Automatic annotation (TrEMBL):
The gene is htpG. ATP binds at residues 32, 36, 77, 82, 97-98, 119-124, 170, 317. This is Chaperone protein HtpG. PANTHER family: HEAT SHOCK PROTEIN 90 FAMILY MEMBER. Keywords: ATP-binding, Chaperone, Cytoplasm, Nucleotide-binding, Stress response. The keyword Iron-sulfur does not apply. Residues 25-166 form the Histidine kinase/HSP90-like ATPase domain. Coiled coil: none annotated. InterPro entries: HATPase_C_sf, HATPase_dom, Heat_shock_protein_90_CS, HSP90_C, Hsp90_fam, Hsp90_N, Ribosomal_Su5_D2-typ_SF. The keyword Acetylation does not apply. Belongs to the heat shock protein 90 family. One of its GO terms (molecular function) is ATP binding. It comes from Pontibacter oryzae.
Length: 606
């Protein structure tokens, strides 16, 4: 006999709310219904394990079928099923959680609540996003119960009638609306299943094929796995990516539950495109790859999987909700990553150095983003010099302390951002037995600033920011072979030859072996402009200002003594200045053409 009644809700507008606002992404319906089916199957397995069900379990699986002609999608399981009374209780009373009641009932038996992933209620009603009529045909596992057939057309009215079903379990049949015909395409359904259900803990069958891996490696103990297992799983997640450098297996059950595997990909200098590669799961159900609240921003450069039932989601499981659990998980992951890097560094420094180019951006980004990560990473972050040798911060300080401490007892670390372009300056520094670091990645301008803030009595200077004798200032004076009058004359000659108000000329005594003319952009000026280009607050005006260079004329270089004696002083001074420009790739266009012509003239006259 058919029974009719009204679904117990507080408003008759609940279905439009569910359809239009609660689940904004229509494909979510399949995730919810398959999750419910898996839930019912897991409950069946649990009841069997504690002896409450003694019959034959059979092959536990969930089946998804599309009938394009009949315009239906059917999700079937051989789980616990329901009686007519249970349908009224779990389906007709919206938001009543069958999973919650089940967990409460069996928690004393030591069952794993995390295996109950779905819940009837609002999740089930996501079916009406794509259906104008939904049917449930179900038979309970309990002996002596009759199968039932529930029908609802999306209004608050339902009907329950006897059904013909031989085996336990539930079939949910969706009669698809015209505006949702895309979901009658098997390829569309397969894509959704592969996205959300790829790692569900129960086999999910579609078109005669099991489309999921019910036992992904993050659910296993690290001791059960080999390096090859981790690499194969990475290939399963990211078929088109290069093999990862190494990985971290997360496994914690207190004060929150969290499992997963984070992989370190090869980053090099290009890290923007790497984002949104970590997948968030809740009890093996895919939730999102937008994990910025769970994972610190700098760790979003990693790849992999995080699975936690304790991550709070909104009712549609589409968005994270911030709370203390998320912060604890965030902190835990940061610590695990830092500990893993430190372990690799200590265990095999050679391998760590080999991989440094691939992970340096990530480590430096982490140090800039998170003080706690900095405290751990400062012991394994590496500095590479132009000779290709690697040092920790403390090792490097010890290396250069004696020779690179200035008159104010400030340790000066010299660096190049482009060893080829700044080769002349690097060579000049090395001629003084100074060591030069390579800091040439996209993040190093920020990293340099951080080091100066964190390290006591330490400053960093780019090798082309000063003449070599001024890079590390000493309590010493160098004698000039020119008197004051000659120096003033030489300065005037060069100012006339250069004729550029953005080139600040000075004459200074340097070694005769140094270049006759040295063009430098002061460290402060360059940093301000770098900050402006990066969008630094308060420095935007710097981006519109022309570069102001210092032009140092070496008073002790023989060429400049010849300039003073030359008939065409300005011509020779301009030639020396253009050579300095050329050495830094700063000569182009008409200036370069004129330089070449002038060079031929000088050579011809010689």
């Amino acid at each position: 006999m058919e029974e009719r009644g009204n679904i117990s809700i507080h408003t008759e507008n609940i279905f439009p709310i569910i359809k239009k606002f609660l689940y904004s992404d229509h494909e979510i319906f399949l995730r919810e219904l398959v999750s419910n089916a898996v839930d019912a199957t897991q409950k069946m397995k649990r009841l069997s394990s504690i002896g409450e069900f003694t019959g034959d379990l059979g092959e536990l699986k969930v089946k998804v079928e599309v009938d394009k002609e009949a315009r239906t999608i059917t999700i079937s399981d051989n789980g616990i099923g329901m009686t007519a009374e249970e349908i009224k209780k779990y389906i007709n009373q919206i938001a009543f959680s069958g999973a919650t009641e089940f967990v409460e009932r069996y928690k004393e038996t030591g069952g794993d609540k995390d295996q109950i992933i779905g819940q009837f209620g609002l999740g089930f009603y996501s079916a009406f996003m794509v259906s104008d009529r939904v049917e449930i045909i179900t038979k309970s596992y309990k002996d002596g119960t009759e199968p039932a057939h529930w029908t609802c057309d999306g209004s608050t009215e339902f009907a329950i009638a006897p059904a013909h079903k031989e085996t336990r379990g539930t079939n949910v049949v969706l009669n698809v609306t015209e505006d949702s015909e895309e979901f009658l395409e098997p390829m569309r359904i397969r894509t959704i299943l592969e996205k959300y259900c790829k790692f569900l803990p129960v086999a999910v069958e579609f078109e005669g094929e099991v489309i999921n891996n019910p036992n992904p490696i993050w659910t296993k103990q690290p001791s059960e796995l080999t390096d090859e297992d981790y690499k194969e799983f990475y290939k399963e997640l990211y078929p088109m990516s290069e093999a990862p450098l190494f990985w971290i297996h997360l496994n914690v059950d207190y004060p929150f539950n969290l499992t997963g595997i984070l992989y370190f990909p090869k980053l090099k200098n290009d890290f923007e495109v790497q984002r949104n590669k970590i997948q968030l799961y809740s009890r093996q159900v895919f939730i999102t790859d937008e994990v910025k609240d769970v994972v610190p921003e700098f760790l979003m450069l990693l790849h992999g999987v995080i699975d936690s039932p304790d991550i709070p989601l909104n009712v549609s499981r589409s968005f994270l909700q911030a709370d203390s659990s998320v912060k604890k998980i965030n902190t835990y992951i940061t610590k695990k990553v830092a500990d893993k890097l430190n372990e690799i560094f200590k265990k095999d420094r050679t391998a760590f150095e080999t991989n440094w180019d691939d992970i340096s951006v990530f480590v430096k980004y982490g140090m800039l983003s998170d003080d706690k990560f900095y405290e751990k990473a400062k012991d394994f972050v590496l500095l590479q010099n132009t000779e290709g040798k690697y040092y920790t911060i403390e090792e490097y300080k010890a290396l250069v302390q004696a020779n690179q401490t200035d008159k104010n007892e400030q340790l000066v670390m010299l660096y190049t951002s482009d060893a080829e372009k700044q080769h002349a300056f690097v060579e000049a520094a090395q001629s003084r037995s100074y060591d030069v670091l390579k800091l040439d990645t996209v993040i190093d301008s920020h990293f340099i600033g951080m080091l100066e803030q964190k390290l006591e009595k330490t400053t960093l200077k780019r090798v082309d920011s000063e003449t070599v004798n001024k890079l590390i200032e000493r309590d010493e004076t160098k004698e000039s072979v020119l008197n004051d009058t000659e120096k003033e004359e030489l300065k005037g000659v060069y100012e006339q030859a250069i004729d550029n108000k953005n080139m600040m000329v000075e004459v200074a005594p340097m070694s005769p072996d140094d270049a006759p003319v040295v063009i430098t952009l002061p460290e402060f000026m360059r940093r301000m402009k770098d900050m402006s280009r990066a969008g630094g607050g308060g420095m935007m005006f710097m981006g519109d200002m022309p570069d102001t260079y210092n032009v140092t004329i070496n008073a002790n270089h023989p060429l400049n003594q010849r300039v003073l004696k030359a008939e065409e002083k300005s011509k020779m001074a301009r030639q020396a200045f253009d050579l300095a420009l050329l050495s830094q790739n700063m000569l182009s266009g008409a200036a370069l053409t004129n330089f070449v012509k002038r060079s031929f003239e000088i050579m011809t006259n010689e």
